[in-house]
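Please predict the structure of the following assembly.
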Amino acid sequence: MISAMSSLAALSLPLETFAPGTHLTTEGTRSGQLYILVSGRLSVQREGVSLATIDEPGAIIGEMAVLLGIPHSATVVAQTEATVRVVADALDTLSQNAEFALHLATIACARLNATSALLVELKSHAAGKAKEQALMGRILMALAATPKGAPARASWVDHE
Amino acid sequence: MANLLTLTTSYPVLSLRAGERLIEAGEARGEMFVLMHGHLKVERDGVEIARLIEPGTLVGEMSVLLGTDHTADVTALNDVEVRHIEDGWRWLESSPIAALHIATMACQRLDRTSAMLVELRREAKEGREHSFLERLFGAVTGADTRN
């Protein structure tokens, strides 16, 4: 985390502030930008389903669209006034910065790992319908955020 | 996106026969493998979660990136050859393209899984859970599932 932070700090990224209710990303659109949360609280929504709240400084927003070259799959809305650092032309930045690329790889893998563990659990509980709904919620959380107690290399929360 | 096989041509080749373990759940040694040919079975907590059959598939990257123990057993189903990267972290640190490749692959899996989970949540009452679960496993592991 420290190395990734210092590596990013060296890029001297510009700050941008969003008023409550404004969109950082809008489902279905492209921006080619990444955001790194500095302060404030954000809400993540996908197809009208609210997936997560982001309030941890250092959280990354928009990486899925950048890496996959696809439109944003989620809408991220400022719940409070929110300040972020902007990584314009994020793919260029990533392809020249192994630490930053590795950081994104690590947080994506942390989410996959957490999800995979939950799916194994879900599979063994598939018969118990009551538990299923609760598990679903946890799986969605696992996908949207790095779980608590995640390894040190993945200590940033990551969202799309 | 560069193929991992073309990025690892200088690494040694490891051969396995059917039934031999490539990775055992437990202590990790920081190594990663790139599948050249053959089929591998991935099991987690005794549940088969994936088969890796696509040349260029990376194996073992989770524990390297996360600094954790291996959470799955990986076993050869037939004659298998892999490229052996002994110090996976160092390789990734020196190659932004490889790191970006892994990030992209992981995000593809997350994206597909996430879309399915949204759908699953909607259809949860329609009793199609089982086949859906199989698809979930395929998405999250980036491989076909067999059960």
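Residues 143-147 of chain B have pLDDT under 50 and may be disordered. The CA atoms of residues 7 and 98 of chain B lie 8 Å apart.
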